[in-house]
Amino acid sequence: MEIFKPLDLTKEDQNTDIENIEKVRCLILGSGPAGYTAAIYAARANLKPVLYTGLEMGGQLTTTTEVDNYPGYPDGVTGPEMMEEFKKQAERFGADIRIGIATAADLSGKKHRITIDGNKIIEADTVIISTGATAKYLGLEAETRYAGMGVSACATCDGFFYKGKDVAVVGGGDTAAEEATYLAGLCRKVYMIVRRNVLRASKVMQDRVLKTPNIEILWEHQAVDLFGDNGVEGAILVKKKGTPQEEQVKIKIDGFFLAIGHAPNSDIFKEYIETDQVGYIKTIPGTSKTNVKGVFAAGDVQDPHYRQAVTAAGSGCIAAIDAERFLAEL
Ligand SMILES: Cc1cc2nc3c(=O)[nH]c(=O)nc-3n(C[C@H](O)[C@H](O)[C@H](O)COP(=O)(O)OP(=O)(O)OC[C@H]3O[C@@H](n4cnc5c(N)ncnc54)[C@H](O)[C@@H]3O)c2cc1C
Predict the structure, then answer these.
(1) pLDDT at residue 113 above 70?
(2) Mean per-residue pLDDT of the chain
(3) Is the beta carbon of 234 within 6 A of some atom in ligand 1?
């Protein structure tokens, strides 16, 4: 005789014991340029968007000072100021901006259920994922000490500030090779700090690096510290670490660029949403549509190539228009 039957709860059943379910037409996750732009467009299209900011209100740009390449600011603007203006503009059209983090997602049904802060469920007709990507760092204390004072994870964003100076790029993959060649066009000298004795970058990118006269590859080197009184003035490296030939090397540089990859913030969606190997959400080219109907992705979370504020904002606009058309067709 069977006395106990194991509980067989589907995800929907599990969710119903949380009383707090709110229905919305358009839910936007993330408050960077992509999320706020999506909110501006969705609000103006009367979708009554609800936006959850995540931990970092305003996104990555709130961690930088000058933003010089966003059109419309001829004198430049600081990242936090610019994102505050994005927020105000979204609020002007009635976007409901809330502090909270998406902690789980159930995208198996027609209505998409997103759990916020582990205790509130939003049931949304459309979801725009604009949760960004986080640059990877080496984990050195010096990276924090010199944040915004010579340490950067974006050559396109910050390279201009190092015109005519000497810089180092850490990494040996395609991104590192791209960043090094980009910086070589601006800087006097670019050191590439490569842990192994080969580059992981594609053959084409390797050739480009090797043919650029002002790039010097420091093979089998690892950065262990940075020094300088007013910002980065140099780096301490270890050559052939852990071998009998191990030696310490000092280089003089003004900028230290990390190019060892990014981690897209897509983990909670991966059960349902297709991503590439790294975790970038795949969208149908030219659109923001994911493989799940009614779920769209915008900004760095779906962009392994450009990762700029203006491209993120552009894709946020696309996502809101895609969401509006999806709802109109229902
Ligand atoms: C130091 C630095 C300087 C830069 N300088 C420039 C520059 O000068 N010019 C330029 O064009 N670009 C610059 N960039 C790049 C630019 O910041 C990014 O390309 C842009 O911010 C991407 O926008 P996004 O909206 O896709 O994501 P992000 O700005 O990364 O925002 C992601 C948002 O998602 C939220 N989030 C994450 N997980 C969750 C979750 N589970 N639930 C809810 N919300 C979540 C976060 O809190 C955040 O608000 C810089 C980047 C850095 C790090």
Answers:
(1) yes
(2) 93
(3) no
Q: How far is the CA of 74 from the centre of ligand 1 (A)?
A: 22
- Give me ligand 1 centre to Cα 35, in Å: 10
Extended strands (E) in 161-283 = 166-170, 189-193, 215-218, 221-227, 234-239, 247-252, 255-258, 262-264
Q: Alpha-carbon distance 261 to 304, whole Å?
A: 9
Annotated catalytic residues are 154, 157-158
Atom 33 (ligand 1): residue with closest C-alpha? 30
Does 266 contact ligand 1 (Cβ within 6 A)?
no
Is pTM beyond 0.85 here?
yes
Instruction: Give tens-digit pLDDT for 189-226.
Output: 999 999 999 999 999 999 999 999 999 999 999 999 99
Amino acid (1-letter code) at residue 260: I
Report the separation in Å between the CA atom of 128 and the middle of ligand 1, taken as the mean of its atom positions.
Answer: 15
The number of the ligand 1 atom at minimal distance from the alpha carbon of 309 is 11
Angle at 293 between CA 288 and CA 115, to 5 degrees: 95
User: Which among 129, 43, 126 has a CA at the least distance from the CA of 86?
Assistant: 43
| Amino acid, single-letter form, for residue 40 | I
Q: Tens digit of pLDDT for each residue in 292-314?
A: 999 999 999 999 999 999 999 99
Kindly state if the Cβ of 130 falls inside 6 Å of ligand 1. yes
Give the Cα-Cα-Cα angle 42, 43, 46 (nearest 5 degrees).
Answer: 90
